[in-house]
Give the backbone structure.
Amino acid sequence: MKAKGYFRQNCLANYDYPMPFAVRSIGCTTMKAGEADIISGALRHPSLEISWTISGCGEIIHYGQPFEMRRNDVFLFLPDETHHYRVKSREWHWRWLCLDGPLAAAMLLACRLPRKISCDSGFPEALFRRIEENISTDSPGMLAELSGTAWQIIARLIGSHHPGFHKDIYEECMDYIRNRYQEPELGIDFLAEHVGVSRSTLTRLFRERRNEPVSACIRNVRMMNAIALLSGTDWPIAEIARRCGYPNPVSFTRLFTRREHCSPGEYRRRQRSGGTSE
């Protein structure tokens, strides 16, 4: 067995500022065919653990019940529970995240999640990486941010187990697009990381709710605002393009012309002459 982990030197109880829960450790484990392992919870594992299978196949035995673990299967351990692992393929690789604090276990139990969850949104690599890069912090502000990042990971599990949760994700995306369409970097990857779901999950949600890709939705919101500015202001085309998320006015003009079948300048002239071309 090969394992690598990143740990905070002090548990949450040793800090002077109050936190309901915080990240304690994060890492990865790889086991080979034929290997098995038992970790005594009372002695070595006082934290809540999220164990996320990345590749291969293994088995977790929890209070005598076996759970087969495959890619994107997640298992939740409460504090002080003994861990039984057994490999069922040539290699089994998983990532783990541990939380401590007075409300860590209560928070997870309140979500009413089963111990094993198959997460259809995929592994949140960017969220795990953010925690790994900052786990050694002693900054109260960063510690609070990492708690929020851990909650985004848990939100993915809630979304997989409670499908109605995706409705809230979709509405959060739409609010974000309407409020931040001016930002050039806004796109499907940026949006997926913001709401804590995978690119494929976000694509599916928008297909189901709007029958269009995320990029088309962002472009439509930008163009509707561009139309309003062309009709209601005397701002130069380049300024309108910039305010609608297009730093390159040539790209803006090309997209606008493809949508409205006329250039931005021609559209403005038509509006001001009563809707007819000169």
